[in-house]
Amino acid sequence: MSLRVRFAPSPTGDLHVGGARTALFNWLMARKTGGTFILRVEDTDGARNTAEASAGILKGLRWLGLDWDEGPEAGGDCGPYFQSQRKDIYDAYFKKLEDAGRVYAEPDGAMRFKFSRTAITVHDLVCGDVTFAPTEEPDMTIRRPDGSYIFHFVNVVDDIEMRMTHVIRGEDHLSNTWKHIDLFNAFGATPPTYVHIPLILNPDGTKMSKRDEGSAIEHSYMNAGFLPDAVFNYLCMLGWTPKAESEKLSRSELTALFDAEAIHSSNAKFDLKKAQWFNAQYLRELSPDALLQQARPFLTAKGLQWTDDAMAAAAVHSVREKVSLLTELPEWVHYFFREDFPFEEDVVAKLKAKPENADLLKAASDQLAQATEWTEQSVHDAVEAAANTLAIKAGKLMPLLRFALSGQSRGPGVTTIAHLIGKEKTLARIQRALREVVDN
RNA sequence: GACCCCUUCGUCUAGCGGUUAGGACACAUCCCUUUCACGGAUGCGACACGAGUUCGAUUCUCGUAGGGGUCGCCA
């Protein structure tokens, strides 16, 4: 029998790192074994579920590249994949329990499932065999007075109906799993193999919730300048250590290496710095075109515009090693796209303190103006020539030129900037700097 | 309160009876360098505690402490 796993989010809010990582491990397990990854939306709580949240979760999963084989918009023969549309199935299963004498009504009409009150063992690939002795806990409610069903019930019914072979979910469910098994038994069904994965905690060790920094996929990653591959990779490292030399691994490598039994049983704290490090690694590998494609929305959001994609691609590529997030890109490249860029104030003050800087800039400008071709090499040669006539080192001129051309004291190589913006703008920017900054 | 899971550098972790306890991120220093970065090198830094088993415990067992989780007509 081929493996079937599912991610079963409740659409009450954004896709969360914890949920994303659960989906990720399910996906990895399915892809590794050639099994089926199912997406099931657990929207039985009409009061708290929203269509926006549901759409947001799908969007987040797609962004991470977690495609599902069955589920919303994908179809499948176990549908519908929204629990809100499966009432007939639940009614039928409820009837089985009723016939077996395993349910009874509360005064207000709510229905409870009569626990077997026997010891129940959960077979878990991560936690091992965990046995729960019979408890004093009250029988659980499985149906509300209005006829709608409760999570534990629908979850189990669907796992039976959708023929799940493994249930990979957060460890917060482990304590309730015996109730699910009790239900499986009551239906005469075989429980799936469980894989309870550790939780992702805040840096301070508290449980990560929706409000916490770094928790929402869309807000903290998609919109914060992360690359999907980097987030995918980092999330895998939280609770699982692939047997590999490097931690930086591609999707296919992670898929090949995935081993559910190797997942840790202890919780992991979230480390934004490390997530950013992964992102920086992936950012640097992007080709100029690919980087521009990723960067485009972040650049335009800052009002930067251009017509020459090749030039824009070269511009972002020239600073790829200086940033770890796409959101940092605009501040590093804005001067490639506009002539009215501001000059950093502290540098202006320094330059004004040395009037001789004007002569240095003029000398560089004169040499650059004489250049017959415009390559990084020719720019370099011109600056070198200017330095020679002044009897100083070219390294003395570079910072001045950088500032004239970008308004900043840091950035890519001066020759790279000059080459990319072209001779005309290079000379014009030097004039502007002489006018507005150095001369006074 | 009851029950369940967990416990190695600040963080993620390797380790599966005998190791100078290894790596990654972060941090610090140095090198490289027209800046900022990248890269390279070095450093800093951990087995929660107590018993037991054993010739020998980070590793096995039990206990304690600490952390997390569950005990909903939320999922």
What are the SSEs and their pairings?
Blueprint: E1 4-7, H1 17-33, E2 36-39, H2 51-63, H3 87-99, E3 103-105, E4 111-113, E5 120-124, E6 128-132, E7 140-143, H4 151-161, E8 166-170, H5 177-186, E9 193-197, E10 200-201, H6 217-222, H7 228-237, H8 251-257, E11 268-269, H9 272-285, H10 288-300, H11 309-318, H12 329-333, H13 345-352, H14 357-369, H15 376-390, H16 394-406, H17 414-421, H18 423-438
Parallel strand pairs: 1-2, 8-9, 10-11
Antiparallel strand pairs: 3-4, 4-7, 5-6
This protein binds one RNA strand of 75 nucleotides through strand 7, helix 4, strand 11, helix 9 and helix 16.
Descriptive notes:
The chain has a three-stranded antiparallel sheet. Helix 4 (151-161) packs across helix 5 (177-186) and helix 16 crosses helix 18 (423-438). The protein has helices spanning 17-33, 51-63, 87-99, 151-161, 177-186, 217-222, 228-237, 251-257, 272-285, 288-300, 309-318, 329-333, 345-352, 357-369, 376-390, 394-406, 414-421, 423-438, and strands at 4-7, 36-39, 103-105, 111-113, 120-124, 128-132, 140-143, 166-170, 193-197, 200-201, 268-269. It folds into three domains: 1-82 and 198-285, HUPs (Rossmann fold, 3-Layer(aba) Sandwich), CATH 3.40.50; 286-336, Helicase, Ruva Protein, domain 3 (Orthogonal Bundle); 345-438, Arc Repressor Mutant, subunit A (Orthogonal Bundle), CATH 1.10.10. The mean pLDDT is 95. The longest helix has 17 residues, at 17-33. With 440 residues, it is mostly helical.
